[in-house]
Amino acid sequence: QVQLQESGGGSVQPGGSLRLSCTVVGNTYRSKCMGWIRQAPGKEREGIASIGRTGNIHYKDYLKGRFTISQDNAKNTLYLEMNSLKPEDTAMYYCAADRGYCGVDYPSLFTYVGQGTQVTVSS
Questions:
Q1: H-helix or E-strand spanning residue 62
Q2: 87-122: per-residue pLDDT in tens?
Q3: Is the Cβ–Cβ distance between 109 and 37 less than 8 Å?
Q4: Cα dihedral sign for 20, 29, 65, 46?
Q5: 29: confidence class by pLDDT, cuts 50, 70, 90
Q6: Is the dihedral of CA 29, 33, 34, 39 positive or negative?
Q7: 8 A C-beta contact, residue 79 and residue 70
Q8: Residues 35-48: tens digit of each pLDDT
Q9: Complete DSSP assignment for 74-120
Q10: 59 pairs with which residues across the strands?
C-alpha cells in the first residue's frame, strides 16, 4: 500500500509562486512513477507533470516553463514548483503514484492519489 500526503497549497496573487510537497509512505516499489494532477471546479482531472525513479520527466505542454517537478528519493518526497501563477491555475492539486504508468495524458491511470491540497490564485 502507498499513502501520499500533499502540503504547500494556499492562496496567492496572480504572478506569485507556490511549492507543493508530497510525502510518500509505504511500499515505494509501487510508486516507481510519481506525478501531479489537478482538478478545477466543474472540470475533469488534468495531468500536470510526472517523474520516474530514473528521472524521466513529462509535462503537460502548456504548463512546461512555469511548473517544475522534482523528487528527493532519499526523502521519498515529490515537489512541484509553480511560478507565474494565474487565476486559471486555481484547483485542487493531487499527488499521484503508480508502479507502471508515468505520463500526463491519462491521470486516471495513477493507482494511488493523495487527498489533495487547494491552490487558489486570486487578487
A1: none
A2: 999 999 999 999 889 999 999 999 999 999 999 999
A3: no
A4: negative
A5: low
A6: negative
A7: yes
A8: 999 999 999 999 99
A9: GGTEEEEEE-S--GGG-EEEEEEEESS---SS-GGG-SEE---EEEE
A10: 49
The single residue listed with the C-alpha cell 520516474 is 52
The amino acid present at 25, given as its one-letter code, is V
Q: If you ran DSSP here, which 8-state letter would residue 44 be given?
A: -
Taking the C-alpha atoms of residue 33 and residue 49, their distance in angstroms, rounded to an integer, is 11
For the record, the C-alpha cell of 46 comes out as 488534468
Q: Which are the contacts of 48, defined by CB distance < 8 A and separation ≥ 6? A: 35, 36, 37, 38, 59, 60, 63, 67, 69, 80, 93, 104
pLDDT digits (tens, 9 = 90+) for 2-26: 899 999 999 999 999 999 999 998 8
